[in-house]
Amino acid sequence: MSMLVLPILVPLITAAVLMLAPKRAAPQRWISLAGSVLLLVSALLVFVRVNATGVQVLQISGWPAPFGITLVADLLAAMLVAAVGVIGVAITGVAFSGVDPQREAFGYHPLMQMLLMGVAGAFLTGDLFDLYVWFEVMLVASFVLMALNRTREQMEASFKYVTINLIASSIFLTALGLLYGAAGTLNMADLALLWPTIRTPGVDVVLAVLFVIAFSIKAGLFPLFFWLPASYHTPPAAVGAAFAGLLTKVGVYSLIRVFTLLFHSAPPALFALLLAMSAATMAIGLVAALNERDFRRVLSFNLVGHIGYTTASLSLLTPAALSGAIFYILHHIVVITNLYLVSGVLLRLRRTTDMAGLGGMYRDQPVFAALAMVPIFSLAGVPPLSGFLGKLTILEGTFAAGAYWVGGLVLVVGLLTLLSMARAWADSFWRPATGAGDLAAPGTALLVTIGALSLVTVAMTIGAEPLFELTSRGAQQLLQRDEYVQAVLGTAR
Amino acid sequence: MEVLLALSSGVLYAAGIYLMLRRRLAQIIIGLGLLSNGTNLLIFTAGDLTRARPPVVPDGAEALQQPYADPVPQALVLTAIVIGFGLTAFSLVLAHRVHETAGTDDIDEIGRER
């Protein structure tokens, strides 16, 4: 189905057009927005097709499966690509509230499209080496977006970010080399078929651990997450929002892929390792979030902590837990992106995101406060918003799998999240303002985007039943593998 | 030959990681370069070495004759070299900018206000 290539092709063409277009703000922004809307439309087309007729496959240049590069979209990939489209439209829409002129002149818009292309490619590819290439596409775009800065703090954050990600890529590549040496193929479906028959225990564990380390760095799992809170709060809010919403999710997605396709029958110790890392991530992330007094750093640590939810569910590898993880990922992409945009408005209004300088928003900016309530309380897990439903599904998954202590931890961490977000809300919005009043207008495009993303969250809450049905089917597809493998390799095998 | 290549790859990894633990920007970048070359060598070695048998169908023959060198690891390494080259170039430019902005090449000093 040639439609599969659209979510990759559309941002690529948009980026090319943007580079040729006049460097003034208006044409760049409009072309960028048009490209993102097209990306969303094509992602939705792919999703509708996958939902109606099952796993879609495109063999690039007509090379049959294990030999060429394959694009595959199962339900998980299709849903995530649709989320990329939503975030793409949001991020490019935000640009209408103003981007640093220097950034805009140095290719902010084309780079953002490249980032979207990299993320969509990573979700759609059916080949592990191709996944590595998409990772690099995504990373290089994110490197430049991050490094288009001039302050010392930002330069330091950029250098750390680049270095740790390059190390992760090297580890990923090492794992790929060893895996190819052992299996002779890097096509995911082919591996799913071959690996259980040829794996030897030693190689299996070494490879799995290498993959876990590489993807945990990207996803931000304990003890490998320290780069994230050290860097995500430094770039402008729109860039931070795109990173927070999409990049760590690619790490989680890759973990889900390799664990459901390759290592599903690996030794239990491996799953215990992933579970322990996830549990520590949840606990440490949220405790650290409570310790922070800066709105954006609170968000960074919440982002880290909540990644633990999804990977803990993955490590149980039951349909219910996996379905909860997918639901949570989708919820989290929308909400955390929205919250970073909220931090952008705070930054515009008060020139700071330190909570000491905030406060009084509820009185001074009632519209903004009302819009920001949705993501803040959704992340906090206040019923009936999507965060609550996401946690509920994960909780059901852990209890159904008999992992009661994980369920207990999910509850405790949920409480800590509630505490951390309630405090962020109280300090930034409710408390009477201490410093000077607002220094600038909040920016109409920012408010519209925050409102739109809040609407998406509300829609996910109202449509939770069909969405949950979708994620359950997605989890079934991941765990049964037959449909995926057959779609890629053809019925002959 | 495999042993020799495996050892070289190991030495490159070790040297790369050692350099990345240093504080100077230039050393970190050289470390990254060594690490990525160690990885390339590893992919090449793990894909089985076959000497002097390129995967080219000889004149008059219909198919390749065993043994022949697997072309896939070579293609993977080639891709990885290109990506590694681009990333190294980018890191160098970034290091230059860090140095310009912060006036130091010591990773611990960059974030510190003067």
Task: Give a topology summary.
The complex is a heterodimer of chains A (493) and B (114).
Chain A lengths: L5 H15 L4 H29 L2 E4 L10 E4 L1 H20 L6 H5 L2 H17 L3 H20 L4 H32 L4 H11 L2 H19 L7 H5 L5 H25 L6 H24 L3 H22 L2 H32 L10 H4 L1 H15 L5 H15 L3 H27 L13 H19 L1 H17 L1 H8 L4
Antiparallel strand pairs in A: 1-2
Helix pairs in contact in A: 1-2, 1-5, 2-3, 3-5, 3-11, 3-14, 3-19, 5-6, 5-11, 6-7, 6-11, 7-9, 8-21, 9-11, 11-13, 11-14, 12-13, 12-18, 13-14, 13-17, 13-18, 14-16, 14-17, 14-19, 14-20, 16-18, 16-19, 17-18
Chain B lengths: L1 H19 L4 H22 L24 H32 L4 H4 L4
Helix pairs in contact in B: 1-2, 2-3
Rg measurement of chain A, Å: 21 Å
Shape of chain B: elongated
Number of strands of chain A: 2
In the residues of chain B, how many domains can be counted?
Answer: 1
CATH topology of chain B: Helix Hairpins
Number of strands of chain B: 0
The number of distinct helices of chain B, counting runs of at least 4 residues, comes to: 4
Cross-sheet strand order for the largest sheet of chain A: 1-2
Largest sheet of chain A: 2 strands, antiparallel
Question: Radius of gyration of chain B over alpha carbons?
Answer: 20 Å
- What sequence of helices (H) and strands (E) makes up the elements of chain B? HHHH
Mean pLDDT of chain B: 85
Tell me the greatest interface.
Answer: A-B, 31 and 35 residues
Order of helices and strands of chain A: HHEEHHHHHHHHHHHHHHHHHHH
Silhouette of chain A: globular
User: What is the overall pLDDT average of chain A?
Assistant: 85
Describe this structure in words.
The complex is a heterodimer of chains A (493) and B (114). Chain A has 493 residues and is mostly helical. Chain A has a domain at 267-462. Chain A has helices at 6-20, 25-53, 75-94, 101-105, 108-124, 128-147, 152-183, 188-198, 201-219, 227-231, 237-261, 268-291, 295-316, 319-350, 361-364, 366-380, 386-400, 404-430, 444-462, 464-480, 482-489; strands at 56-59, 70-73. A two-stranded antiparallel sheet of chain A has the order 1-2. The longest helix of chain A is centred in the middle third of the chain and has 32 residues, at 152-183. With 114 residues, chain B is an all-alpha fold. Chain B has a single domain, classed as Helix Hairpins (Orthogonal Bundle), CATH 1.10.287. Helix content of chain B is 68%, strand content 0%. In chain B, helix 1 (2-20) packs antiparallel against helix 2 and helix 2 runs antiparallel to helix 3. The relative contact order of chain B is 0.14. The mean pLDDT of chain B is 85. Classes of the chains: A mainly alpha (493), B mainly alpha (114). Chain A binds chain B through residues 129, 133, 136, 140, 143-144, 147, 150-153, 155-156, 158-160, 162-163, 166-167, 169-170, 173-174, 176-178, 180-182, 184, and chain B through 20, 25, 28, 32, 35-36, 39, 42-48, 70, 72-73, 76, 79-80, 83, 86-87, 90-91, 94-95, 97-98, 101-102, 107, 110-111, 113.
